[in-house]
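Hi L.,

You mentioned the student needs an example of a multi-chain input paired with its predicted structure. This one should do, with 777 residues in total across all chains.
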Amino acid sequence: MHVHNYEKLWLGASLLLIVGFISTIVYGAAGAGITMVNDEGGQVNPKELGNTSGFDDPGVTKVGPNEYEVHIVALQFAFQPGTVELPANSTVTFYVTSRDVVHGFEVAGTNANTMVIPGEVSQITVEFDEPGEYGIVCHEYCGAGHHSMAAELIVREPSNFTMQDDTQTPTSGNETTNATATPTGGESA
Amino acid sequence: MSTPGETAGETVESAREMLPDNSFLIQYPHVSRVVRSLFLTAFVAFGIGAFMGVLQALHRTGIARIVESADYYTFLTLHGVLLAIVFTIFFLAGVFTWANTRSLDRPPVSKRFTWFWVVTMSAGTAMAGIAMLAGLLPSIDISADVLFTFYAPLQAHPIFYIGLAVFVIGTWLAGIDWFRQFLAWRREHPDERIPLQSFMVLTTMIMWFIATLGVAVEVVVFLIPWSLGIMPAPNPLLTRTLFWFFGHPIVYFWLMPAYLLWYTVLPKIAGGRLFSDPLARVVFVLFLLLSTPVGIHHQYLDPGIAEGFKFIAMTNTMFLLLPSLLTAFTVVASIEHGARQRGGTGYFGWLKALPWRDPAFTGMALAGLMFAAGGFSGMVNAGMNINYLVHNTLWVPGHFHLTVGTAVALSFMAGAYWLVPRITGRKLYSRPIGLFQVVLWFVGMVFMSAAMHRGGLAGIPRRTAEPQYPQVAFETVAGSVGSLRLQLAFGGVLLFVSALLFLMNVGLTAMNNKPARGLDSALPPALSGPEQSPTVLDNLKLWALIAVVLVILAYSLPLYSIVQGAGLYPAGQEASPAVIAPLLEVIA
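Structure written out for the whole complex:
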């Protein structure tokens, strides 16, 4: 097959670009340690969340010296709890599920972001380095009141932070860090 | 399209006799009628969809809220379905019917069969359209406020799903029609290479047959029985995955007719010839192979799917960039050849020799330029871990308004300026209005899409009637959120004005009594012809087989593990809005 020399050159450069793109992703995964939301969260019955450990009393649980778990239930048209408080310099694992339809969970301006699917638990681990106030929005259309579905996340100085519900029952250790939440603007108070 | 010697009193009928014998309208009056009727549906859908678009641009930015925010989602559903399904696919059907007939130089085998699929596609569209529009009337207990993606357990009225199924069957029949036309040609030309345009039509349709299996199973096996109350709610992750099995390749279904125009029509308008026929074939084969086994890249942030499957989809997606990069080379080289035939010289000086006053040329050139920008913003979405920052934010519609909203839609409008005179025999009503209109689309999209991309980086979500929350302060990298809103709305208004000018120009062309001139339907041969490529490229069975194997490799394990996880009908799933209990549960 006849391929013009310039075409060959372009083809080579294109392949190089593609391999370059893939390398950036591999670097993000292996170097920066950003892992994907995956199937570790397991499955739940969306109608039985009241009897499901963690989701029966959604909110923050301390599981280690600087480690916290946050269980969040998404429903039409709110997040439970509506306010989450965490200390800075902590590693936090969110477990998010839905009681009804497909929702989204996004800490605006950060890369803490996941789909929320009824029956599945989304598990994401993030680090909060600096104090600040963040908005949490539902980013998947979930019905006529979708635009009112939001919550807030307050990251406090560790000295200002007190656990509301201090049940020191470590469940499982956090293995992976899959996203780093950093404020994009200067909103850290 | 104007030539000297045109007299004022000339009518289309008297002029038709003066059309060259090889003009499409004279050779294939019946096929021309079919294409006209397909284009009519496409343009009506385009007009309504564009109106919904400007309503949204003004609503979500808070500039003018004409409808209730709860109804916003009905308008958004209509916008998505009418533009991304009806406009694009009816236009595709028109272009493919024209291209297959022109390049095989024979009409479809049966007029009755052709009209049968046109009617089937139209009937499906009407059913889904009624379900969506009824959502605006509270007195009627029918709605389909489920957006373009119709994720269960959000539920639409059964007539919406049935309409979609009927529409897809219509597209399958259209594909069968084009294959029958090809096979009839093959019997008369057993040893010839498949003509290029027909090759493009056939490879695209094989891709479509494979891709639509996902949505067919989703709708027919799960959603229709569920919405009728016969079966319980399906596994939402499974139906999402089946949707995206179809939802990514449909992107290439939109794009392939635009590519067909760029490869075969654009070089002719530019005054030149296609640079390489073999490379064009390679590109279409690559799209056939790689379009489907990538759908999971829409589900990077879905729970319940292992990271490895996402990584495979990511790698395939990146390689899908290759055929588009090859296209960029071939199309630019073909245009440059045209410019040099027209007397252009220099490294970049040849650009001045191009027919920039022709809206068909300028529209397609600007569409191609914007596709380059859209391709790179798409690479950010495709970058699995970078995608965390932009997933489901305004960045995403910013991206696809560059691709389907400009690369495809603007190429279709530009293509219509070239094609409509050829299927009506009527002169384009106004070239200056056409030129202004395509440039206006480009400018409007620069404003709207740039604002959307930047808003997305600030975390502003997509698909939201009022992205203004008491709990959330969006921080932009540069400029204020208020200025982004103004920019988005301004761009949206320009786009709507452009759409109206297009519809007016095409409508007046259809009623124009001045005859079109110079409608030679022949396309110049490529500089490197098909004889320079191996015949294996034309072995459609082989490519179809490899495409199926790649799909099985990419999807069998993820689908298996999703069904293993929560099952086909997991407990506790309930339709929203709430409907009657599924029949089986009532019995049980």
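You could point out the following to them. The longest helix of chain B spans residues 69-104. Chain B touches chain A through 85 residues (CB under 8 Å).

Best wishes,
N.
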